[in-house]
Write a structure and sequence with these properties.
By secondary structure, this protein is mostly beta strands. The protein is built from six helices and 17 strands. Helix content is about 10%, strand content about 35%. The strands form three sheets. The chain has an eight-stranded antiparallel β-sheet with strand order 13-16-17-10-11-12-15-14. Strands 1-6-7-3-2 form a five-stranded mixed β-sheet, with no helix packed on it. A four-stranded mixed β-sheet has the order 4-5-8-9. It is elongated and about 70 Å long.
Length: about 375
């Protein structure tokens, strides 16, 4: 089954010159889109299905003026769970890995470079939290000489003269009208551009970063645990561009591997619809809802299919529909991130969304909405299928 993200990637690239890094990191725009905070412009009809895919969320970046990268807090990965229940916080603390296995051997290709990355910065995985559905990684990049070098994420490389220094989220530094390059010059530092990437099978990844007072650039990287194996090995690709160097020709590339242990299990919680018929106002039929619940959260999958006559139905209003889950008292089960996959037949769809770990009721109400036009269509009740 090809990801709907991948299919829309092709469409987007045909219609706009969009860097791959933006397409890969645009996942954080999803939440804004689902909440109806994004408006579709008449000049951009192709942006319609942005809420359904990570790839298309680039449209939201243009419209709401945000970024897929964001400031994170200057302490442990456990801060990611500060708004969760005490039981989830306890689980996260138990799963926190602070001695991540990462060989010191370097990529042999880096030895061919006239300079090593360590002349400017060094990288290591500081912490990690892994459960059956999601992985969180804290990666540190330390300057070789904090008095000489200011480490900059590659996403800011073209905006050193325009972005306020507060964008680096340095502790104690607020917006001041001083650009990143001006700040570096005022403090006798040179800008060193860094690139970091951890390839995985997940459709989307979220990268957040902040800078500690000692100049350490801290990345927080999170993505779905697709492999679902007990031992997980990843490659971290790193790049360092020396001061005044070119990202195209002077980037010093390297990589290292690291291994995480998944000590958790998950349970599957299925729901079946009370009725199997077209949802009012649409040609869509809900097939079922399934949750995969793990120690730190849940992934809810809403499965449905198109039952109309349009061969290119994704361009109709039904292609704009997103599903929202409620209990019978009208309280929404609020998701934080996700997307939609399209089946090989072109008509079956699976909307997958991540939710906080919570007790699920026996009955859920699934409502179909168009978040762009702010239209509510019909709803279907689904019942917990007893195991």
């Amino acid at each position: 089954m090809k990801s709907y993200n991948d299919k829309l990637n092709d469409i987007l690239k045909e219609q706009a010159d969009i860097p791959d890094i933006v397409l890969n990191k645009a996942n954080q725009a999803f939440h804004e889109i689902r909440q109806g905070n994004v408006k579709r412009t008449k000049q951009a009809k192709w942006q319609k299905r942005s809420f359904q895919t990570a790839a298309a969320s680039i449209a939201a970046l243009f419209l709401i003026g945000t970024t897929a990268y964001a400031a994170t807090e200057h302490f442990s990965l456990l801060s990611k769970f500060k708004d969760e229940s005490p039981s989830v916080q306890k689980q996260a603390a138990a799963l926190l890995e602070t001695n991540v296995t990462q060989p010191s051997a370097k990529n042999p290709e880096s030895a061919l470079s006239p300079a090593s990355q360590e002349a400017f910065a060094s990288f290591r995985v500081k912490e990690a939290i892994c459960d059956k559905t999601k992985i969180f990684i804290a990666l540190e990049a330390k300057p070789s000489d904090p008095d000489k070098y200011l480490l900059i994420p590659s996403e800011y490389a073209g905006e050193l003269d325009t972005l306020d220094i507060s964008n680096l989220d340095i502790q104690g530094i607020k917006a001041s009208g001083v650009s990143i390059r001006e700040y570096a010059k005022d403090h006798g530092k040179e800008c060193v551009i860094l690139s970091v990437g951890i390839p995985s099978k997940a459709d989307c990844q979220t990268y957040e970063y902040a800078m500690d007072p000692d100049g350490t650039l801290c990345y927080t990287i999170s993505f779905e645990n697709v492999e679902r194996t007990k031992e997980l090995t990843f490659v971290c690709n790193t790049g360092v561009c020396p001061p005044n160097g070119s990202l195209d020709t002077d980037m010093i590339k390297d990589s290292f591997t690291f291994t995480l242990d998944d000590k958790t299990d998950s349970e599957t919680i299925p729901y079946v619809p009370e009725t199997v018929e077209k949802i009012a106002g649409t040609d869509l039929i809900l097939d079922g809802v399934t949750f995969e619940k793990s120690a730190l959260g849940m992934i809810g999958s809403v499965k449905y299919h198109y039952a109309g006559n349009h061969t290119d139905w994704l361009k109709t209003k039904d292609g704009d529909i997103c599903f929202f889950l409620y209990d019978e008292n009208g309280k929404e089960l609020t998701g934080t991130e996700g997307g939609t996959d399209i089946g090989d037949d072109g008509i079956t769809m699976t909307q997958r969304w991540r939710y906080s770990a919570t007790e699920l009721p026996d009955t859920l109400v699934v409502k179909a909405k168009d978040v762009f036009e702010k239209i509510e269509y019909g709803e279907v009740k689904v019942k917990l299928q007893k195991q």
